[in-house]
Design a protein that fits this description.
The structure holds 2 protein chains of 2 kinds. Chain A is of the alpha/beta class. Chain A contains 19 helices and 13 strands. The N and C termini of chain A lie far apart (69 Å). Chain B starts with a helix and ends with a helix. Classes of the chains: A alpha/beta, B mainly alpha. Chain A: Residues 1-22 form the signal peptide.
């Protein structure tokens, strides 16, 4: 009796383990069958690029499916870091900015994807940013760059010549003065320009366009001319001042999209946003285009220098080994021409730019197709806003506070930049 | 003898039954409080102990933490941003605590009467406390807007030629945040004071009135002493709340302009969650914890001396 009771128990356990094993082997990766990869994403409802990439990849690789784990866009890095630390992060994750790449890489959270990188060759812009000690840890699928957006109708109304590919900041300032006067004379309430409250709008361009400028140097004198120009433009009334923009929580999309500003320096992602907003009615209908960001001087007119961080894809170091091949295949697709064409077809700027990709981008209804916009899209030297360093996040914090102090008029430009240098040297560069 | 023989096992059985009954009752009691204690242990005590341990390391969330001894604390001594955050926290507390205390007590005294529509006014005063902090910050930022805000327009109407820049000015941003903080929290503390006022015996007031005490004398010599337990509780809670202020500042000014409204909680957030320096952030948390403990201990000591 006793024995038979044990036999029943053993048989039950065996049956249970068989069921469990069967469940385990249900993971298709083990059997070489269909694979489902999980991937991080944010605001899926208004960010179609993730689904577009997944669908385009699945169409070419029916055995591999990509499913999303959605994060909050603003707290993306915090939430992802928590999930990685807890071991519950997705198989493939997006590196939303370069600032935190070092954290993931030095924390052994990214798989070596050098083989994927070598298959991409040199066509993927921004790839070098993801290399550490000779190993590549992520590949870029998007490479945004900052342009000068302009409202053709408002320029015509003010009687000011629209931007040219060769514009310097002096040309920009001159046009802003002309626009301010012309728009006022024509009875338009629009401002000449809108500069958003982010530190990037001043610091990103200054860092990219100043020879020898270094974010981690602790010397921020190179920012002075850019800040003085921004302050001068807000003092003259050519653009909304920082205090009003921050206290009224102004949205840059509304400022340009509802024709309250004739010019705006902004990232390339705004092309897709404005096209979508004009289609939906959230933005007014008007003629617009984009030009290269104004340059420090004429020496870079053939290849205008701008800034922007790539958006990368990495593989979670804790991924199931059986899924690695599929994940690498997905990365190669997303960063290659296939993914680039898919992204370009919805107005998103991919990392890989080829003639096919450019064709797909300008084939999107609503994207301006004039020569200047084409030139801005295809021809630029994009420097990273956040050069990869263990100190980048901390330095950006100090510079964010410096930005608000200068733009609000709380601190004189030189004094604030000196103070920023001192703080970076003592609080960041000497810290462990 | 026979009693011992017969009664022994019975008595032993009764003892066992009693012991089992007692144990069962204890088990029942423990089973009721255990979930709470487990929750407290796992979600409060554990993290606090971990915080102290992490503050002596350079942990950056991934991988192993390296023991750095007192390095994080000695670095704090030289960290000018930390000094700024500490001073700003004290600045905020020094104004926020007495203002909230005085206004909430005043409001409670005003609404402790049998007035028409008093329930509506009490609800209205409490309403900001349950309103979303983000909504409050956005609304007040609009009110504080330098050129278009109604506050500066009113000031202009009364002849103020150069009204403050409020949240866009490094000297006025902290007063602006304090105003909103006081406005938001005074309804909550008003409720506590209202509850305290219910405990003041009316006959004491009556006796004082018969003795010829005026309203101020009755308030000072009757109401305030009777309210002592409430005022003590309110002071302790207000102090801890002021030292920990975070969300309001994060949404209203993000610590700026510059570092004019940077407070300790936000500095902890920056170092920990933005820069992933959890060891250093933990050290700042320990300092904040110590600050709260010391001030609270002083408050307890003063209260004990007064009661004694």
């Amino acid at each position: 009796m006793q024995r038979s009771r044990y036999s029943v128990l053993a048989a039950s356990l065996a049956a249970l383990s068989l069921v469990a094993t069967a469940c385990g082997s249900d993971d298709p990766a083990d059997a070489g069958g269909p694979v489902t990869l999980s991937m991080s994403a944010w605001t899926l409802s208004s960010t179609p690029e993730f689904q577009k990439l997944a669908d385009a990849f699945h169409a070419q690789n029916p055995d591999i499916k990509v499913e999303f784990k959605e994060y909050d866009a603003t707290n993306y890095d915090t939430q992802l870091t928590a999930d990685l630390a807890a071991g519950s992060a997705p198989d493939v994750y997006v590196l939303k900015n370069l600032k935190n790449f070092v954290t993931y890489q030095s924390g052994d959270q990214l798989l070596d994807v050098s083989d994927v990188a070598s298959s991409l060759g040199s066509s993927a812009n921004g790839l070098a940013n993801y290399k550490a000690e000779g190993v590549t840890y992520a590949v870029p699928y998007r490479q945004d760059s900052w342009y000068l957006y302009y409202n053709k109708d408002l320029f015509a109304k003010a009687g000011v010549q629209p931007p040219a590919a060769t514009w310097t900041w002096a040309d920009y300032e001159k046009a802003a003065e002309g626009l301010a006067k012309g728009l006022k004379d024509s009875g338009s309430p629009a401002k000449a320009a809108y500069q958003h409250v982010w530190q990037s709008t001043v610091q990103g361009l200054a860092l990219a366009q100043t020879q020898g400028a270094d974010l981690i140097s602790g010397d921020y004198g190179y920012l002075a001319p850019y800040y003085k120009r921004a302050l001068q433009l807000q003092q003259s009334g050519a653009q909304v001042d920082y205090g009003t923009a921050s206290t009224n929580t102004l949205q840059y999309q509304a400022q340009f999209g509802t024709q309250q500003a004739a010019m705006m320096v902004m990232g390339s992602w705004y092309v897709a946003t404005l096209v979508a907003q004009q289609k939906s009615g959230a933005a007014q209908a008007f003629q617009w285009g984009f030009a290269p960001a104004p340059q420090r001087d004429a020496s870079t007119k053939d290849k205008p220098v701008t800034f922007g961080d790539p958006t990368g894809l990495g593989i979670n170091a804790a991924i199931d080994e059986a899924k690695i091949a599929a994940a690498k295949k997905f990365l190669a697709f997303a960063a290659g021409e296939g993914g680039a064409a898919a992204l370009a077809s919805i107005g998103v700027t991919p990392a890989t730019l080829t003639d096919t990709v450019t064709g797909a981008y300008f084939g999107v209804a609503g994207v301006p197709t004039d020569e200047l916009s084409r030139f801005a899209f295809t021809n630029h030297d994009t420097k990273a806003e956040n050069p990869v360093s263990p100190h980048t996040a901390a330095v950006q914090n100090v510079l964010r506070e410096t930005h608000s102090a200068i733009m609000s008029g709380s601190s004189p430009v030189e004094a604030a930049l000196d103070e920023a240098g001192k703080r970076v040297r003592s609080e960041v560069l000497q810290s462990k | 003898m026979s009693t011992t023989t017969v009664g022994g096992p019975r008595a032993g059985g009764a003892d066992r039954a009693r012991r089992w009954h007692r144990a069962r009752r204890s088990l029942h009691g423990v089973s009721f409080v255990l979930p709470n204690f487990l929750g407290f242990g796992l979600l409060t005590l554990g993290p606090v102990v971990a915080l102290f341990a992490i503050s002596f390391t350079n942990w950056n969330v991934f991988g192993k933490a390296k023991w750095v001894g007192l390095d994080n604390f000695t670095r704090l001594l030289k960290d000018t941003s930390f000094h700024r955050a500490l001073l700003n926290t004290l600045y905020y507390s020094a104004l926020h605590i007495p203002l909230t205390f005085a206004l909430s007590l005043g409001l409670a005294l005003l609404l402790d009467r049998k007035l028409r529509g008093v329930a509506f006014f009490r609800t209205a005063a409490f309403f900001p406390y349950v309103t979303s902090i983000v909504a409050i910050a956005i609304a007040w930022n609009l009110l504080f807007s330098k050129d278009f805000g109604p506050i500066n327009q009113v000031l202009g109407f009364f002849g103020v030629a150069d009204p403050p820049g409020w949240t866009a000015s490094s000297s006025w941003s902290m007063p602006a945040v304090i105003i909103v903080g006081v406005w938001r929290e005074m309804g909550y503390y008003m409720l506590l004071f209202l509850a305290g006022l219910q405990t003041v015996p009316p006959e004491l007031h009556e006796a004082a009135r018969i003795d010829g005490a005026n309203a101020w004398q009755r308030f000072r010599n009757v109401t305030l002493p009777c309210l002592r337990p409430t005022t003590f509780f309110v002071t302790v809670m207000l102090t801890i709340g002021s030292f920990k202020v975070f969300d309001l500042i994060l949404v209203m000014t993000d610590g700026g302009p510059g570092q004019s409204t940077l407070v300790l909680s936000q500095y902890i957030y920056q170092k920990g969650l933005v820069e992933n320096r959890f060891g250093y952030a933990s050290a700042i948390s320990v300092v904040l914890f110590a600050l709260c403990m010391v001030v609270t201990a002083v408050q307890f000591a003063v209260n004990r001396r007064r009661n004694g």
